[in-house]
From TrEMBL:
Enzyme Commission no: 3.6.1.41
Protein name as annotated: bis(5'-nucleosyl)-tetraphosphatase (symmetrical)
Residues annotated as transmembrane: none
InterPro entries with a match to the protein in the record: Diverse_Catalytic_Enzymes, HD/PDEase_dom, HD_domain, YqeK
Reactions catalysed, as given in the entry: P(1),P(4)-bis(5'-adenosyl) tetraphosphate + H2O = 2 ADP + 2 H(+)
Amino acid sequence: MEEKEFLQKIEEIRKHLQEHLKKERYEHSLSVAFTSICLAMAHGVDLQKAELAGLCHDCAKYMGKKELLEACQREHIPLLPEYLEAPQVLHGIYGACYAKKHFQIDNEEILSAIYYHTLGKPAMTTLEKIVYLADYIEVRRGNREDLTAIREIAFRDLDLAVKLCLEASIAYVKEKGQHCCSLSLDALAYYQEKKEV
Ligand SMILES: Nc1ncnc2c1ncn2[C@@H]1O[C@H](COP(=O)(O)OP(=O)(O)OP(=O)(O)OP(=O)(O)OC[C@H]2O[C@@H](n3cnc4c(N)ncnc43)[C@H](O)[C@@H]2O)[C@@H](O)[C@H]1O
C-alpha cells in the first residue's frame, strides 16, 4: 500500500479504536502495533502488515461475551463447542471479521494473525507468531519475571518464544480454573516437539 494511503488507514483505525476501547486497552493496542513492527524488522516480515495486525488485534475486545457470540452466529463463523466454556477467547475470532467489516482489511495473513492472537495454533505463520508474542510481551504488560527472558528470545528465536509463551499462558489459564482451549494445547505440543523439549 502507498505510504500516504497506509498512514490514512492507520489514522482512521486509531480513531475508531480510541472511541470504542477503554484507555488502557487502546494504549495496549498501540504498544502491540509498535512491538509487532519491531519483531517484523528482526524477522523479515512486511512492516505494514505487522502494524495493521498488531493495531487491530483487540478491535472487538470492547464487546461483551453474549454480543460476541451473537455476532459470530450472525456472521456464520464456525465455533467449537468448547468456545462456549471460554468466551474470553471470542474477541480474537470475531476480531478478524470485525477488522474486515470496519477497516476494510482483506489481507488473509493479517486477518489470520488477529483471529489466532489469543489461542495460537500449530505451525503459525511468522506474522501470526509475531502478533501472538507482541500481545504477550509489549511493554504495558509490566515486568513479570518470565517476560524479561521471553522479550529477549522473541527477537532471535520466534518458535522458542512461542513455546515459552504458550506454556506460561496455559498454566495461567489452568491456575485461574478456566477451561483451556484445545487449539492452544495442540500448539504447545507442536512447538515443544519443534524445540525438542
Ligand atoms: N488456551 C486458552 N483457553 C482459554 N482461555 C485462554 C487461552 N489462552 C488465553 N486465554 C484467556 O483469554 C483471555 C484473553 O487473552 P489474550 O487475548 O491473550 O489477552 P488479553 O485480551 O489482553 O487478556 P485479558 O486482559 O483479558 O487477560 P489477562 O490480562 O489476564 O491476560 C493477558 C495475557 O497475559 C497472560 N498472562 C497474564 N498473567 C499471566 C501470568 N501470571 N503468567 C502467565 N501468563 C499470564 C494471559 O494468558 C493472556 O495471554 C485471557 O483471560 C486469557 O487468560
